[in-house]
Each structure stands twice: as structure tokens, then as C-alpha cells.
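Before relying on records like the one below, remember that each one covers exactly one chain. Contacts with other chains, cofactors or solvent are not represented anywhere in the record.
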Amino acid sequence: MAEPNLVLGWFAAFVGAIGFGSFAVPIKGDAATKVDIDPLVMQSYKSLMCFLTSWLVVLLGQQVTFTWWGVVSGLFWVPGGAFNIFAIRNAGLAISQGIVASSIVMVSFIWGNIIFKEPAKSQVMAYLSVWLIMGGLYGMSYYSTSDWVDNTDHHHDHEATSSDHDYDFEEDEQDAFLNDGSTSSASYENEPSPSNPLANSLEISPASPGREKQATPGSGAIVVCGKTFQRRNLGLISALLCGTWGGSCLVPMHYSKGDTGGLGYVISFGTGALLVTIWMWIFRFLYMIAKLKSIREGYAVLPPFHFKVMWLPGATAGTLWSLGNVGSIVAVQQLGQGVGYPASQAALLVAGLWGIFYYREVTRPTTVIKWFMSAFVTIFGILLLGYESSSTGGPGR
């Protein structure tokens, strides 16, 4: 077996952190906001790019291999990825990625330490690291919420008054299904475009203080099963679901045989992701047919792909995620699971930088400092957990 290349391993971990921490930027951008992109549509762009870019491993000398365990991975990753997109759009970039990254590591610890019975150097230190992650996560959640709450109290009071009115949910829901979304996005048509040509193409111009909170649907409410919830709260729940469900996406690789592990698993993963995405569209179509009792209306209410607007942001998001995925795998190969995988989870710090300084999700200097202190506690816990435990987690975004 070849000696590990530490320089390559740390570079791959850096690439993984940049990819995982930055793929959400186009999802949060003006293009996605303008068309109010559907989570499954955006996930479809990610899945397609994951499949297409997976074949690039052949250029690295990797033989083409396939295992059906890649499809099982897709069953974890695709729904988890859709949850993550909803979380980013409605809860904010910084807090959602903090929850995702931390919960992924904890899920990885559970699989490795409890289910697979992989040894830890010290059980006490391993569990201490979990508590550090939970404490840091609480801090990030609290300090990324305080600015939001202060700026939306009046808005929430208004919504609470409005929600007292009775309405026929089934009728409203069907009207919403038959709405193509053009009305909800009309307010964004006159947004000024940035001067930078690339930023103009991606439509990810930075927000002025408070602009992101006003422009995204995250400050409103959403009706689920006849009950009204704040979008931000559902976004936080979605981030947790992404981490807990999607965080198991590389566990099936534990059962793959032969040379289908490591980089040999990338093509299987990409193929499985594409297949599961297609299955989810078929299921959604059949559900709408059953609900509306019409094939034509069932097809009409499926969300559009907005290809002219979203092809570049969608391809960029998918490529960045795929880059992070490959970087994470290479880092684990070269540095080991205990160092390589946790190192790539520095993505939560990268995502936090985007959320705080680019989208201005947190604006008060003291709050920003406290958020960073919480983020560093979380990262320290992640690194300590990775050092103490050799779990088999993976990127679940």
C-alpha cells in the first residue's frame, strides 16, 4: 500500500471545505430568489452535476466500477440534499450549514462507535467532543437568531394577527399548486444587477444589511397539513433532517466489496443520485395526479426548472458540491478517517463567512464575535471527535 501523501491530503481537505462551504451560495443568490426555486429542482441540478463530474475520476487513473450500494447512498443523499436547500433558503446560510455539519459528524459517530463498534481512543473524550459540538451548535443557533428576532418581531405580530382568519386550506392549497410562481417572484424583477459579469450571470450579488432577510421567503409563514409555521423554524428542522438522514449517505460504502470503495465509489454514488432524483420526480408526479385527479393538471403543477435563469447557478452549486465530495474522499484516503473527514467539515466555517459577510445574516459586531467563538468550539469538537473515533461518516449535504 502506498504511503499517504500528507500535502495532498490536507490540500484535498481544504478543497472539500471550500466546496461544501460554498456550494450553497448560488442557492441563496438572486437568481434562485427571483424564481423562488423549488428544492427538488435545485437538487436535480446538483444530482445531474454530481453524475456528470463523477466520471472525471477516470482522468485520475481510476477504473470504472459500479456497485448498487451507490443507489442506496442516493436514497440518503438526494432527500437530504433537498432538505438542505429548503433550510438554506428559509433559515439562512450560516445557521443551516452549522446544523448540517455538526449533525453529520454526530451521525457518523453513532454509526462508527455504536453500530459498527469501531474503537475510540478514549470513550470519555469521544463523548466530550459530542457535547462540545452540541454546545457550539447551540451558540451558533442562538447568535445567528438574535438579529433575526429583533428585526422581525413586528412582522411576526402582523402575521399572527393575519393567521387568526379562517380559510379553506384545501382550496388555497390547490390554488397554490396551480400557480406558476410568477406572482410571488414579481417583486424581484427590478432588482439591480451587479457590475461583475460573472456575478451577473450567477445572480449572487451581495446583500446590503438586512436585504437578505427581506428578499427571501424565510421571513414569512408556510402552511403544512393545515397548520401555519414560520419558514425559519421549518428551515431549521430541515437542516437537522439533512444532517441526520443525509449524513448516512456514505455508510453503504462500508458494505461495498472489492475496488468499489474510495474514489471507486464516486461513479456509483453519482449514478445512484441521478436515479433516485428521477424516482422522486416520478413519485411527485403520481402524488399530484392522485391529489388533483387529473394527469394534465398533475403535470401542470410540477415546478419549472427555469433553465434560462438557473442553468449556471445550478451547475455551479452542483459542481462545487461534487468538488467537496471528491476532496473529502481523497482527504480521508490520505489522512485517515479520524483527520481527513473532520477537516473537511471546516466547511461550516466557510459557509458562516459567506452568510455573515456576504449575505449579512448577522450584522451586530458583538454577535458576530460570539458566533465565531461558538463556531470554533464546534470545529474543535469536530476535530476532537474525528481524532478519537474512526467512524464511517460522509458528506450528507
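Residues 153-201, 207-218 have pLDDT under 50 and may be disordered.
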